[in-house]
Amino acid sequence: MARYGQEFKDRAVARLLPPESAAVEVASRELGVAVATLERWRADAMSMPARERAWTAAARFEAVLATAAMDEASKNAWCRENGVYPQELEQWRTAATQALAEPEDARATHRETKADRRRIKELERELRRKEKARAIEKIRLEQACRLIETRSQSMKMIALACGFSSEEVMRRAFLRILRVSPADYRERFFTPKAGQ
User: Fold this and answer.
1) Among 37, 47, 154, 186, fewest CB within 10 Å belongs to which?
2) What is the dihedral of CA 60, 65, 69, 70, to 10 degrees?
3) pTM of the model
């Protein structure tokens, strides 16, 4: 039987209670806890005084939004109904306002943005260069395959004819891309023409 910490239980129950009031089946799927277990936790929490219930950050934000346009009497009635002190609600509103009022801390400076753009351009340039190199290598490899299949020339001559700088460079390309050496490739696919 799985054991859950009190903090986990509190968060799960807070999702099930107002103002979030998530469906038990949905919470069960998201949390990986049996429906019966969640219902028992909710019943236990409902038997406690409302003041002792936990509120998730999302639920606190929802409460602030729900009560933002209310007059004082309506707000007090809402607080009584949901078991929240008006002072708590005001603290939540203040915390939300402060979090939204400090976006400069989260934003990058002009210098950082410029450096990021420069780095992105460098990476894109490098990617284009590598893609071109791969395409060229693929063309060279295809040409080498055709020559190996049809001619009995030395591997060195074929490598140079296809644009590889050496026989070793061609061998490494064969091993990396085709997973076979040029000699093994010739052994499998060489079909000599008449007169060779």
Assistant:
1) 47
2) -30
3) 0.42
